[in-house]
Design goal:
This protein has 22 helices and eleven strands. By secondary structure, it is of the alpha/beta class. It folds into two domains: 236 residues, 3-Layer(aba) Sandwich (D-Maltodextrin-Binding Protein, domain 2), CATH 3.40.190.10; 196 residues, 3-Layer(aba) Sandwich (D-Maltodextrin-Binding Protein, domain 2), CATH 3.40.190.10. The strands form two sheets. Strands 5, 6, 7, 8, 9 and 11 form a six-stranded mixed beta sheet that branches. Helix 1 crosses helix 21. This is Xylobiose transport system substrate-binding protein.
Length: 445
């Protein structure tokens, strides 16, 4: 089970590496992006360089590159890959610097969406849209919602290369059984459950408000369920007027109603996820539910293993009556992606390497590490997962999703992400009204 626990830490740290890196990226300026990229293969002699986020999971990419370099595909493409593991805290800044230099990587790890928009705008990325459509391995190899979620403006610039991380509504099975409650499938059911739990002296939801991004998850799902995924798609693709969509205001009003009604209890703004505060509130029965990324399972397994094994339940975020969003829609971190530098000296070798991410061998390595692959061949392999039941729930959730919305703080431009999170927190702590929240977001550029 150790690999599952580490997976939760990685997933959690990835959210914050991007958030913390956003300021660094902006500070570095945009001028460097117009400098020359990889101009002859940064490794020379037919060797391409790949940058990867240097956490424990990088061992899967190390093995994949070793496998590729000795393969017939590498020989046919006349190229090999050299992997450079970049420490997580340094990754966004080092990538930014490298992409503005003659030593840019040919292939690089990213989060999709806003994390690559500056490179796309500077014409530094290979547009993979037509390649994916015309290549049977890439076209049929990955879940469509995950491929789409990492793109920008309807174009694909990345190939999935790590596990999925959907946001899930977790609940305490024992608490629900004791009070004869069922997981909510509609918003009215959720509100009814809240009322019953509060009467019993139990806070409905744990919330690590001190970290802000757990608050964002609520808005992501509410906007989707009220207005459908197209609302945030507009915003993600650079249309700031999308923040003025009625669904955003309604979502903010709904959040305020939840807070005023005590759904998150008192003092949630001083509770953090990072230090284990929110998971502890949930595991100890002080709160009955927790909206969190899929890494919540491994977090609980590491901190409260008995609770994780016996009492941790999971379900989809409920529908909202009259809303346009499908209950099957998912928000969160679809996965991480490999992108290709437009100036690579050997695009064929880069693409040949990326195809390996769709292989059964690669999927099995992810599963052994506690991850849930985004490949179409993964479902039959999940019995080997540390928790097959939870793994299959996640996989089916993403497989069936008509839309998978990338976490807002990763989908928007880095210079928008930090002020957006500030406005989210102001809404949750009562320093701005729902209408002020919408106005502030509309002013972000």
């Amino acid at each position: 089970m150790e690999s599952t626990t580490s997976n939760g830490g990685r997933a959690f740290s990835r959210r914050w590496v991007l958030g913390a890196g956003a300021t660094t990226l902006v500070a570095a300026g945009t001028a460097g992006l117009t400098a020359c990229g990889s101009s002859g293969g940064s490794g020379g002699g037919g060797t391409l360089t790949a940058f990867v986020y240097g956490d424990d999971a990088a061992k899967i990419q190390v093995a994949a590159i070793d496998r590729f370099n000795s393969s017939a595909a590498a020989k046919k493409a006349k190229g090999k890959i050299k992997l450079e593991k970049v420490p997580g805290s340094e990754y966004p800044a080092k990538l930014r610097t490298a992409m503005g230099s003659p030593n840019a990587p040919d292939i690089f790890f990213n989060w999709g969406g806003g994390s690559i928009k500056a490179y796309r705008d500077a014409k530094q990325l290979v547009d993979l849209t037509d390649t994916i459509t015309s290549d049977p391995v890439l076209k049929s190899g990955f879940l469509p919602s995950v491929i789409t979620a990492g793109g920008i403006g309807g174009h694909n610039y990345g190939i999935p290369m790590r596990g999925m991380q959907p946001v899930i509504l977790f609940y305490n099975k024992s608490l629900f059984a004791e009070r004869k409650l069922q997981p909510p499938t509609t918003w009215d059911q959720l509100l009814d459950i809240n009322t019953k739990l509060k009467k019993a002296g139990i806070t409905p939801f744990a919330l690590g408000g001190a970290d802000i991004w757990p608050e964002l998850m609520w808005l992501e799902y509410l906007v989707d369920r009220i207005g459908g995924p197209q609302v945030f798609d507009r915003i993600k693709n650079g249309d700031a007027s999308g923040w003025g969509d009625p669904a955003v205001l309604k979502a903010a009003q709904t959040v305020k109603q939840l807070i005023d009604d005590g759904a998150f209890g008192k003092g949630f703004n001083s509770v953090a996820y990072t230090n284990g505060g929110a998971p502890a509130v949930f595991a100890k029965g002080k709160a009955a539910m927790h909206l969190m990324g899929s890494w919540e399972y491994s977090t609980q397994l590491g901190k409260f293993p008995d609770f994780a094994r016996k009492d941790l339940g999971w379900t989809a975020f409920p529908t909202i009556e009259g809303g346009a969003g499908d209950i099957r829609n998912v928000v969160g971190n679809p996965t991480n992606y490999w992108s290709i530098n437009a100036r690579t000296s050997n695009k064929d070798a880069a693409l040949a390497f990326l195809r390996d991410c769709a292989s059964e061998t690669y999927a099995k390595a992810l599963i052994a590490n506690g991850d849930i692959p985004t490949t179409t061949n993964a479902e039959s392999l999940l019995d080997a997962s540390p928790n097959p039941e939870f793994a299959k729930f996640q996989y089916k959730m993403v497989q069936d999703a008509p839309a998978f919305t990338l976490s807002w703080d990763q989908a928007v431009d880095p210079n928008v992400s930090t002020p957006m999170l500030t406005e989210v927190n102001k809404l949750f702590v009562g320093k701005s009204t729902p209408s002020q929240f919408v106005s502030a977001l509309q002013g972000l550029k």
